[in-house]
Amino acid sequence: MNNISLRLLRENELSAAEHIFRLAFGTFIGLPEPTDFCADMNYVQTRSQIDPTAAFAAEVDGQLVGSNIAICWGSVGFLGPLSVHPDFWGRGVAQRLIDSLNE
Predict the structure, then answer these.
(1) Is 4-102 assigned to CATH 2.40.480.10?
(2) Three-class SS of residue 74?
């Protein structure tokens, strides 16, 4: 999929990125209601607030389809959550989000 664009995640997209995170992980583990996964947590929002320049978004045709957070704490690097909307699994979105860390 060549039309994947990467950029910084915008503050007004945090709730959408959080929804994609829940949907993706809940779908992966087979929950009957995938968006119930970690419904009482805010992984994307809290981690993106640590360093907004380390929160990345993937979009296809202007639609947010995934995100990734990459944070350095001293000599330790932390990656995630990395999530991609299930409708876009297998299309290279996650790989592009990981590759962007080297750019």
Answers:
(1) no
(2) coil
Alpha-carbon distances of 44 from 1, 69, 90, 99, rounded to whole Å:
25, 8, 22, 19
The domain segmentation of the chain, as residue ranges, is 4-102
- Per-residue confidence (pLDDT) for residue 9, from 0 to 100: 95
CB atoms within 10 A of CB 10: 14
Which whole number is the average pLDDT over 69-88? 90
What's the angle, vertex CA 90, arms to CA 86 and CA 94, rounded to 5? 80
Strand partners, 73: 76
Q: Kindly state the average pLDDT of the residues 47-76.
A: 90
Burial class (CB in 10 A: 0-12, 13-18, 19+), 99: exposed
Mean pLDDT of 66-74: 89
Chain-centre distance of CA 54, in angstroms? 11
Given a contact cutoff of 8 angstroms between Cβ atoms, the answer to whether 84 and 90 are in contact is no
* pLDDT band, residue 2 (cuts 50/70/90): low
